[in-house]
Amino acid sequence: SDSPGGFEINLDHRKLKTPQAKLFTVPSEALAIAVATEWDSQKDTIKFYTMHLTTLCNTALDNPTQRNKAQLIRAAVKFLETDTVCYRVEEPPALAELQKNEWDPVVAWAEKRYNVTIGSSTSILGPNIPASTKETFVSHLASYNMWALQGIEFVITQLKSLILSMSLIDRHITVEKAVLLSRLEEEYQIRRWGNVEWAHDYDLCELRARTAAGTLFVHLCSESSTVKHKLLQD
């Protein structure tokens, strides 16, 4: 239901609350519907670990780590220093080539899209990311609200990459592609040695579900109502 603070969720005529007992209100109707769908799909026991959107809303409402916007942005940009797609191997040559073929285009896209220098390195220290690149990402992320930033950080944590996360959130690559690129080394080993573990399939599905939920959360929290009304009219 619509309330002054946003949209509330009622479960069996009870208002949903956060772990810190705040009223569970979300900024967009689409997000409220998505959260309600998560609750509806729960059966006899409520499995919170399957409810990524609900968890992200709780984090945004309760802010358990008590960080402000600048701190959230800094934490996200810090991932550039250890970004998955910037660390390259020299051996084995087949993996080095796979990394170059798969990761270089995404890095090139990001450099062009944000007008920055990123680069890559085979050194254990990783590439030397220029301060201006970090500043550019800080100001880009500042254009998002606190809710969206919680979602962005969640996606970055899944993919271990700011570059893949921004490519995904900017709709340059799909969830499947982003997850695949974040796990290139594992995928290379599986192609080489065969898929030995059923656990791999479970991990992959879980990572896709989390990444998809985080991306959806960012989009639902950052699109303005005017854009939505325009889309509905078109």
Automatic annotation (TrEMBL):
GO cellular component, as recorded: mitochondrial inner membrane
Physiological role: Plays a role in the assembly of the F1 component of the mitochondrial ATP synthase (ATPase).
Keywords: Chaperone, Membrane, Mitochondrion, Mitochondrion inner membrane, Transit peptide
Topology term for the membrane: Peripheral membrane protein
Source organism: Calcarius ornatus (Chestnut-collared longspur)
Cellular localisation: Mitochondrion inner membrane
UniProt key word Cytoplasm: no
GO BP field: mitochondrial proton-transporting ATP synthase complex assembly
Record-stated family: Belongs to the ATP12 family.
Subunit structure: Interacts with ATP5F1B; involved in the assembly of the F1 component of the mitochondrial ATP synthase (ATPase). Interacts with FMC1.
Pfam families documented for this protein: ATP12 (PF07542)
Stated name of the protein: ATP synthase mitochondrial F1 complex assembly factor 2
InterPro entries: ATP12_ATP_synth-F1-assembly, ATP12_ATP_synth-F1-assembly_N, ATP12_ortho_dom_sf
Cross-referenced Gene3D superfamilies: ATP12 ATPase, ATP12-like
